Amino acid sequence: MTSNPAHGAHALVRGAQLLTQRELRPFIIVPLLINLVLFIALTALMLSQLGGLVDYLRSLLTHSPVDTESMSWWRAWMATAAAWAAMVFQWLAWLIAIAVVLMFLFIYGYAFGIITNIIAAPFNGLLAEKVEELLTGRAPPSEPLHRMVWRTLGRELRKLGYFLGWGILIFIVALLTSWTVFLPAALGALWGAWCMAIQYVDYPLDNHQRPFREVKSVLMRRKLTTLGFGGTVMLAKMVPVLNIFVMPAAVAGGTALWVERLRKEGDPGADALPGRDLEKR
Fold it and tell me: Is it the case that residue 123 has pLDDT exceeding 50?
């Protein structure tokens, strides 16, 4: 089977379609409530920072001085540095402004995703289990609820350590190559897409208690499909309101992607029954 970014992007749509199935509705209520509460809290925090961001962008595009006395030290430093950069490289002012806005949205979406994924991990594991059962007719191996909760939380912390460890290294590389402008943006986009793919394709593999290294191996087999799925999820998480509904759709989509495209024939976890025709439902 070929690797195609369109297949990955369609997986998120596929996940959203699966959530309309009546068998899955009870398993998306809690994740949606968690998302809603965190969305309100993080959006309020984001809005509280918009005043400083507007001043920051104005300093880039108009070269007017910004009153830094009322700013925190890091925003004052960024505003001063940005004003100097805009004077020296006027042709880069708009590119820098666009990059700042995208970075602001990226941090917002990434923080939203990390917090919700940790809190909702046990519920996402249950949702992935039910999606797999719906698609294949067979559920993953059962285990006591308390053991599943601790295992999924431990897995989330394992993923978080992986994301942060490599993320710091990529951030350093981005800083060293920041003079190119586009290379750091490309690195950030690729890394974000890879992280989102790992995050949501991991749930069905974790339900089968596969090691974390196997998730990376599975995704590497279809690199373009993987990046297409992760990139679509990442973009959707940057959109306020839409990001409330992205997580359950991404869990369902990641599970469908693994069951239908990423799992190899002869795989020990591929002995499920053929998928059922959901179009007739």
Answer: yes
